[in-house]
Amino acid sequence: MAASGKRYIDVEYENRTVFDRAHNLSLIILPLRVSDSGPYECIVQKKKEGHYERIHGAEVKLEVVADFSEPEISWVVEEAGPRGVTFTCSSHGGSPRPRLLWWVDDTPRPGSNTSVSQDPRSGLYGVTGQLWDNGTSRVRLVCLVRFGASQVSRNLTWSPADFSEPEISWVVEEAGPRGVTFTCSSHGGSPRPRLLWWVDDTPRPGSNTSVSQDPRSGLYSVTGQLWDNGTSRVRLVCLVRFGASQVSRNLTWSPDLPRAKRSHALVLVLSGTVAVVCVVAAVLAARYLLSRAHKPAGPGPNSTHLELLEAARESRTGTAAGSGCGEPE
């Protein structure tokens, strides 16, 4: 009420204020807005000689508090620049003006890129801040938003994502330098990995190693190759290291023996051929002996017997020399 006694209402409070006469003229403001924060003065006036005089006054400060939303924490695994993890915490819809704080493993940690915004219509605040970590081990995070005498927080336990157990495949190369190309792959992990090879317990440099990152999840995949001449048995280890962790796959590889199997088949074929030759030679020798046995008898009582012995000896000697079927020396 103005000094003239006329009633005056600020447009900001029009249709939002009620005097509660039953409770010592309490002022009720509904709905309450953040912009209602500030000092208020209660003045008691008394009419005297046609005008109102102030006889009492009191001031009170109103602070409108609106609870912030529970903070949300997201993270991105950084590939460029210093490699690690950038955590982002955000909260909104509260008042008064907030502060954003970080704890890592129960120790305060300074954040970065903290920004506070205020909605011009409602007067409510929003806050966002970031925290960087090397991401090499498991961490317990707390993002805390303080506003006035109140606060809200969110806890997060983060650890590097385990990569899948590596898979090893191989291709026997026929063109170019002949050998075996082994390929090892693993996926779905974090932070950025390294792929290493061991051959018979000795480190061996690989080739064509590539690392990719899923733009949505931030998780990595890795693939690499190793060449070997493939002439003998080898024991392989493909190892994927990420941060302080690692996964591996062992493989014992030996070349197939197709040439040895074909050589045995060739020996069998040759042996069969020699056997046939020997059988044919034996048949011819028998026919020769029979034909000589049926010839007319010559002079002397033992001529047929002597001719048979001589023919058998000639047949045996000739067959052994021509076919290799004779007795071993």
From TrEMBL:
SUPFAM superfamilies: Immunoglobulin. This is Ig-like domain-containing protein. GO terms for cellular component: external side of plasma membrane. It is found in: Cell membrane. Keywords: Cell membrane, Disulfide bond, Glycoprotein, Immunoglobulin domain, Membrane, Receptor, Signal, Transmembrane, Transmembrane helix. It is a single-pass type I membrane protein. GO terms for biological process: cell surface receptor signaling pathway; cellular response to lipopolysaccharide; immune response; negative regulation of T cell proliferation; positive regulation of T cell proliferation; T cell costimulation. The lineage of its organism: Eukaryota, Metazoa, Chordata, Craniata, Vertebrata. The keyword Signal applies. The chain crosses the membrane at residues 265-290. InterPro entries: CD80_C2-set, Ig-like_dom, Ig-like_dom_sf, Ig-like_fold, T-cell_Activation_Regulation. Residues 71-157, 166-252 form the Ig-like domain. Pfam families: C2-set_2. It comes from Ornithorhynchus anatinus.
